[in-house]
Design goal:
With 302 residues, this protein is mainly α. The chain has 13 helices and no strands. α1 packs antiparallel against α10 and α2 packs antiparallel against α5. It is globular, with a radius of gyration of 20 Å.
Length: 302
C-alpha cells in the first residue's frame, strides 16, 4: 500500500514538474521574443539607443546589486572578466542591437542576431572548447544558416536600402558579441546567475555613467511613464525574470528539453512585431523564421 502511494506521489510530482517547466519555458521564450519589439518601439519613438542601454542597466543593475555583493561574485569573476562579459552581453550588445532595430523590423533580430550567435557559438565551441558536433547538429546549423541567408537575401537583393543593410549588419555584430559571451562563460565555467549579475552591475557602474555624462542621453520628466515601461520591460522582465524562468525550465525539464524553448524566440519576435508594431512579415521572413526554428530544434539534439 505504501509503495503504491509513493509511486502515485512520484507520478504527481513528475507531472507537476513537467507543467511548471513547460510553463516557465514558454513564458521565458515570450519575454525574450518580445524584447526586440519593446526595443524597436523605444528607438523608433522617444528613445535613443544609448538611452535604452542606460535605462535597462539602471533597473537590472540596481536589482542585482544585492546579489552581486551578498554572494561575493567579484571573488569568482575578476574585474577584467566582468568588464569583458559586460561588453559581450551588456551595454555594447544592447547598444548595437538597439541601433539595428532602428532600421529593421523586430522579427529580423530573432533570425539574424540569434542565427549569427548560434552559428558562431558552435564554431567557437569547436575551435576553443573542443566541442564536437554530430552530423544531425551540423544539419541543424545548416538550416539556421539557411534561414539567416534567406532573410539577408531579402535585405540585400529585394528590399536593398542602406538603412536595412546597416540594421542587419548591426544585428550580425550583436550576434558576434553574444556568441563571445556564450563561449567565454563556458570556457571560464561561470554560473549563469553570477554572470548575469556581473554583466548588469558592471554595465551600471561603467557604461551607464559614461552615457549619462557624455552620451546621447536626455531625461524628460514628462516622459516618466515611457521611461518606467522601458525600465521595467528591459531591466527587470527581460534581463532578470526571463533568465529566472529559463533557469526554472532547465531545472524542471533538464538542459536539453529546457533549451528547446529557445527555438520559439524567432517566432515570438515576428508575431510580436506583427501584433504590436503592425510589421507584416514577408514570405521570405516567414520561411526564414521557420528554417531558423527548425534548425535550433535540430541543433540542440544530442
Amino acid at each position: 500500500m505504501t509503495s503504491k502511494i509513493n509511486i502515485q506521489l512520484e507520478v504527481e510530482g513528475s507531472s507537476s514538474s513537467l507543467l511548471i517547466g513547460v510553463t516557465a519555458g514558454i513564458f521565458a521564450a515570450i519575454i525574450w521574443g518580445l524584447w526586440p519589439v519593446l526595443t524597436r518601439f523605444g528607438v523608433t519613438s522617444n528613445f535613443t539607443a544609448q538611452e535604452i542601454v542606460a535605462v535597462r542597466f539602471v533597473f537590472a543593475g540596481l536589482m542585482l546589486l544585492p546579489y552581486y555583493f551578498r554572494k561575493r561574485v567579484w571573488q569568482r569573476i575578476s574585474p577584467i572578466k566582468s568588464f569583458i562579459i559586460a561588453s559581450g552581453a551588456g551595454a555594447i550588445y544592447v547598444y548595437v542591437s538597439a541601433l539595428g532595430l532602428q532600421y529593421v523590423p523586430a522579427g529580423h533580430l530573432g533570425v539574424v542576431e540569434t542565427g549569427t550567435m548560434l552559428i558562431l557559438s558552435a564554431l567557437g565551441g569547436y575551435l576553443f572548447l573542443n566541442e564536437r558536433k554530430t552530423y544531425v547538429q551540423v544539419m541543424g546549423y545548416c538550416l539556421i544558416f539557411g534561414g539567416l541567408a534567406l532573410v539577408n537575401w531579402q535585405s540585400l537583393a529585394i528590399n536593398a536600402t542602406p538603412e536595412i543593410l546597416l540594421g542587419d549588419l548591426y544585428l550580425v555584430l550583436g550576434g558576434v558579441l553574444w556568441a563571445s559571451y556564450t563561449i567565454l562563460t563556458k570556457k571560464w565555467g561561470l554560473v549563469s546567475w553570477d554572470a548575469v549579475a556581473a554583466v548588469s552591475v558592471w554595465s551600471l557602474l561603467t557604461w551607464v555613467p559614461l552615457i549619462i555624462l557624455f552620451g546621447d542621453f536626455h531625461l524628460d520628466v514628462e516622459e516618466a511613464g515611457a521611461w518606467l515601461v522601458q525600465g521595467v520591460g528591459q531591466g527587470i522582465i527581460t534581463a532578470v525574470l526571463g533568465l529566472w524562468l529559463y533557469s526554472v525550465a532547465v531545472e524542471k525539464l533538464g538542459a536539453s528539453r529546457g533549451s528547446l524553448f529557445g527555438a520559439l524566440v524567432p517566432a515570438f519576435a515576428m508575431i510580436g512585431g506583427l501584433l504590436f508594431l503592425l510589421e507584416v512579415p514577408t514570405s521570405y521572413e516567414i520561411i526564414g523564421v521557420f528554417l531558423t526554428t527548425l534548425g535550433i530544434l535540430v541543433s540542440i539534439r544530442r
